[in-house]
Amino acid sequence: MGRAAAMVTAAGAKLPVWERALPAWKDTVPGANGETGNERPLLLGVDYYPDQTPEKLWEEDARMIAEAGLTNVRVAEFAWGLMEPLEGKFDFAWLKRAVEILHKHGIAVILGTPSAAPPPWLSSKYPEILLVNKDGVTVQPGGRRFTCPTNKTYRKLSLNIATEMAKAFANTAGVMGWQIDNEFTLQPHARCHCKFCREGFQDWVKAKYGTLDSVNEKWGTVFWSQTYTDWRHIPVPLPSNGDPNPGLVLDYDRYQSHACASFAGEQLAMLRKECPKHFVTTNQVGAPLDTLNLREMYRDMDFVSSDNYPGFAQVFMPALASPEVMASMIALGHDSMRCVKGGKPFLIMEEQAGKAGQSFFAPQPHPGQLRLWAFQAVAHGAMGVNYFRWDSARFGAEEYWFGMLNHDRSKSIGFDEMARTVKEMKSLGREGLESSYVAEVAISFDHDSSWALSVQPGNSKLTYMAQLMAWYGSVASANTGTDVIQLDEDLWKYKAVFAPVQYVVSEKQAENIRKYVREGGTFVAGFRLGVKNESSQIVNAPLPGLLRDVMGVTVKDPVPVYTEKLGVKFGSQLAGAEAQCALWADLLKPESATALAMYTGAYESNAAITLNMFGKGKAVYVGADLDPVSLARVLRTVLAISGSNSAIQAPRGVEVTRRRAGDKEWVFVLNHTPEEQEVSLAGKFSAVVGNGPNNGRLPLRAYDLAVLQGA
Ligand code: GLA
Ligand code: ZN
């Protein structure tokens, strides 16, 4: 077992190494039943808003939250106005009273720093903090996340309130950790283009390139007479009649991602100093909605937190029509968030609790779906879930984002289902909830390729995220466990590594892939491989550029496909019905590789898919944008050839994952379909959650699940 070596605690429970990484939190003041020295509770809680709830209801809330078996709450991430009603005048008394009541009921607290929504006095006095969107329009207060990540005044005021909170709660009984800000990555305008960002970007470019000659050379600014003779002339990518310089735009995406990470980093450094006993995280969302390189954001935090709203995702992205496709997209998000910190268990800081939406909302999930969705996160490596939210807001923009309690504070339709889910998750214990996820293969999620392709997709309908979702859906449906990685990370433990539209390839990535394949790995790449270098310049070599030797082919011509009908005929190794080529066709000329499939029609003499034996490994180039059915068949076949096969054959729409701690293994079987399904299981299993198998057969009702252990 790779990075996650087991560690035996005094209690004999085998815990993965990362348990050591979390600050040792012991509760100093006697708990609800007078016990002291409580360990950090399992993180099975709810997001609670005492700032939006009459104080006379707090006691009842705390009692009901405890009765529901919930262990903790997240509070205050949107309470700046109450904590600093006037500049420099701080009032934490109300929050101290709320935390005290919660602690009395044995409920631990995660405090949120409120920099995602500053109060009106602040944006009125300091209008320069406002974000400027990609059209050059200054967004206005009134919503949230309308601030610039670079602006020093905003950073100072945000750090001020966070520091005052930290000083006030560093030794408060019940407080165990912090969430910095709220969802930097998910916002309508995930990029600021203001004058402060312009100066920040110019400084960042100067630090990166050192000389103007170097940046002019890397971006190729001689084109259209854009040569910079002064750092202060470098613009931000705002509308300019004519497409922007690809190198500048890619670096701007990198700068904005860094600006958000360093914004959070300031608060993190302060919390480390003021609250050394507390853990620190922040909540984001993973692929395919992610707009920031989260590895930088979370590098020094204790663990990753993610927000999970499958039902809302379904109405927010109609393409996710079928429960199966939706389940796959959500799984991609979980796998990408788990891998941000190398497989360390992550927390679902916000889990859907009912009907969900703002101006429009998703219907009440069907019976079983709330339980299923929460368990899907745990099945993919989460160590806990906090439901969003306790009550349903009766005012504000999210009145239709329903909580565990209805607007009249009665228990919601899914209340008992959520309480049952929490109880069942507790039966997995810390060992199960903080065990390692078993992944045999990996898929690349490359921000540079995503950002560079969005500037020059080549085919207006081509998007990185749609390709990533299609490839992930195909690979993950084999149920052998999929990590979502970056190609300069360790590849050695994977039987196969998949890379859809890996448009930008760095020297470091190319060398890492070459070594991996030479030593026996299977690398599977999609079209548009290695077209761009790290400055988003076209490589000065026949495609696929740096990986030509590994792939053993030359791209004779990259063909964006619009209306023309283009088919792909498969050879014996990939035998199957002729495929349709959708948006793209790289016409491949095998050098040392062999053709596994050919185009038909106008491009019939060209290879569409090739296999190259390189060193002890294999490299497969899928040059055609295959229809979903053919793509799934081809990638599943290559995956099986790489030796990655699931022992459990599950029908479509049923997901199987595994987690391990020492010699213990948990098998999660999740039925995402509205129909009854049956899964056949070789070997003896006992049930930890749900029903166990009977004579090797495991029936699952609609949206039902089981967690099994080898008997
Ligand atoms: C996001 C935010 C929350 C809330 C929920 C519901 O994930 O973090 O503040 O808005 O969604 O919309
Ligand atoms: Zn800005």
Q: What's the short version?
A:
With 711 residues, the chain is of the alpha/beta class.
Give an overview in words.
- The protein has 711 residues and is of the alpha/beta class.
- The chain is 30% helix and 21% strand.
- It is built from 19 helices and 31 strands.
- Strands 15, 16, 17, 18, 19, 20, 21, 22, 23, 24 and 25 form an 11-stranded mixed beta sheet that branches. A 9-stranded parallel beta sheet has the order 7-6-5-4-3-13-10-9-8.
- A hairpin with a 3-residue loop joins strand 11 and strand 12 (361-362).
- Helix 12 packs parallel to helix 13.
- It is globular.
- The two termini are 21 Å apart.
- Residues 1-24 and 28-36 have low confidence and may be disordered.
Relative helix content:
25-40%
What binds here, in terms of ligands, is: alpha-D-galactopyranose, zinc ion
How would you classify the helix and strand content by structural class? alpha/beta
Strand runs, count: 31
Average pLDDT taken over every residue: 93
Give the radius of gyration. 26 Å
Give the strand content: 15-25%
Poorly predicted parts: 1-24, 28-36
Main beta sheet strand tally, sense and closure: 11 strands, mixed
Dominant shape: globular
Distance between the termini: 21 Å
Count of runs of 4 or more consecutive helical residues: 19
